[in-house]
Write a structure and sequence with these properties.
The protein is of the alpha+beta class. The chain is 38% helix and 28% strand. It has helices at residues 13-24, 49-57, 90-93, 102-113, 165-169, 231-237, 239-248, 252-263, 305-325, 330-355, 357-363, 366-379, 383-398, and strands spanning 3-9, 29-33, 46-47, 69-72, 74-79, 82-85, 97-100, 119-123, 126-133, 136-143, 148-158, 174-176, 181-189, 199-205, 208-215, 219-227, 271-274, 278-280, 284-285, 288-290. Strands 1, 2, 8, 9, 10, 11, 19 and 20 form an eight-stranded mixed sheet that branches. Bound molecules: flavin-adenine dinucleotide (FAD). Residues 9-15, 32-35, 41-44, 46, 126-127, 159-162, 165, 185, 273, 292-293, 298, 300, 303-307, 309 line the site of flavin-adenine dinucleotide.
Length: 407
């Protein structure tokens, strides 16, 4: 009864999407998610055209489902409180950058998957350990408060995020890219008086930066990029003190907005997230395959992680569906794992290269930043800059490689 073709650990965007494709293609699949409620897991919600395209391919059209999202139609950049430019980015101008509710999206994906009798969702179960047969992973032990269950699968896929159990248990070798920053996240009501409509902004100040994005619940998500390890001291000083610091370096109207939010107790509880950027050196081992953040943990720069995980799912399905439909042997499955990694590595590598730049830029070259940023104001006006930026942003929004569901 607990024998499956595929066992997927992790019901985030990658795992849920892959399970959906498998189930809809007649493959017997188990999806394991430790949270009973998807909103308990905080993750990226920036949906690029590349990620939306994946959702379209699995039959989810954001406009026709009950999934809240908000389009962002303008980006502003401030330096020490003064506007230095509004880069004219094509996909933002076209309203193709969306901030979509992940809990609602994930509920929708599992709801659709539940229409297939060969889909089994273990909601609220934690994958505790791997099960082996002749030194090869052949299943997963899962538990909730009441029971332990053993699930067996021809393939075990670790889509279990940045603290992956599958990665840990199999002791995958990891290449880490030093990240000098943490991000302090909190939400405030959308500052309509400051930037009406649906506008995002970056506010840069020496050794620090704010990323502010309008989100679907009439709020603004604020990410304050701070030097790694500095939150302890900020917490000790108290919210009032560090909000004051942000206010001093922010545009006046936003500063007033923050003061108002503080007075009305409208700033959500902040939490700090360690910026992590890494990649396992080889994505499969002993019959198990890692994908999404488990294989290559993304930081929040450029809003890529969610979209990359969705695209991993498509490539994985293209290779594994034909094999799992037939009685393919272990060598064929291992060979497919290799092909999946090979096909995804180029895009993942390029995105991680881009993601590793901004934090270094902010923290390491303090004086250079001071010098360069005012010059950027002038650069924004040149057509040649726009052409260059459009090309770069096209890759970030639509993906570096062609990814299409072919099964
Ligand atoms: C705070 C934050 C902000 C981010 N901002 C952005 C952004 O703006 N845009 C963007 O594109 N990306 C962003 N990212 C990255 C993005 O969230 C991830 O890259 C993306 O969610 C990866 O998807 P995934 O399916 O691989 O893993 P995840 O979304 O991490 O999902 C993994 C799932 O596995 C479950 N799980 C873990 N361990 C177990 C276990 N042992 N048993 C059962 N279940 C388990 C978890 O509960 C989780 O639901 C952000 C990440 C964080 C944390």
């Amino acid at each position: 009864m607990n024998n499956f073709d595929a066992v997927i650990v992790g019901g985030g965007p990658g795992g849920a999407t892959l399970a959906n494709i498998f189930a809809s293609r007649g493959i017997k699949v188990a999806l394991i998610e430790r949270q009973k409620d998807f909103s308990k897991e905080f993750r990226g919600e920036a949906l690029m055209p590349s990620g939306k395209e994946v959702l379209n391919q699995i039959g989810i059209d954001l406009d026709n489902e009950n999934i809240k999202y908000r389009k962002v139609d303008k980006l502003n950049i401030f330096y020490k409180g003064a506007l230095i430019g509004n880069p004219d980015i094509e996909f933002i101008k076209k309203g193709q950058f969306r901030w979509a509710s992940q809990p609602q999206l994930l509920e929708k994906i599992v709801e659709k998957s539940s229409n297939f009798k060969n889909f089994k969702f273990f909601r609220g179960y934690r994958a505790e350990d791997l099960v082996y047969e002749n030194d090869r992973v052949s299943g997963v032990k899962i538990s909730n408060l009441d029971e332990d269950i053993f699930l067996s699968g021809k393939v075990v896929i670790g889509f279990d995020g940045r603290n992956s159990m599958v990665r840990r248990k199999l002791a995958f070798s990891v290449e880490k890219f030093h990240q000098p920053a943490d991000v302090l996240w909190f939400k405030v009501p959308y500052p309509e008086n400051f930037i009406p409509g649906s506008q995002a902004f970056f506010s840069l100040f020496p050794m620090s930066m704010l990323v502010c994005v309008p989100v679907y619940d009439q709020k603004m998500q604020v990410g304050w990029v701070i030097p790694s390890g500095s939150y302890g001291e900020l917490k000790r000083q108290g919210k009032e003190k560090w909000i004051e610091f942000i206010r001093e370096n922010s545009p006046k109207d936003f500063s007033d907005h923050l003061k108002d939010c503080l007075d009305k107790n409208e700033i959500s509880d902040p939490f700090v997230l360690k910026m992590t950027l890494d990649r396992v050196k080889k994505w499969n081992k002993s019959g198990a395959l890692l994908l999404g953040d488990a294989a290559h943990t993304m930081n929040a720069v450029g809003g890529q992680g969610l979209n990359i995980a969705l695209r991993d799912a498509i490539v994985c399905a293209n290779h594994l569906v034909p094999l799992l439909k037939t009685d393919a042997d272990k060598t064929d499955l291992d060979f497919a794992f290799e092909k999946i990694e090979k096909e995804r590595l180029n895009e993942v590598r390029q995105v991680q290269e881009i993601q590793s730049r901004p934090p270094k830029f902010i923290f390491v070259n303090k004086y250079l930043v001071d010098l360069i940023l005012p010059i950027i104001k002038i650069i924004f006006k040149f057509k040649v800059f726009k052409r260059f930026a459009d090309k770069e942003f096209d890759k970030i929004s639509n993906g570096f490689d062609k990814v299409k569901l072919e099964v």
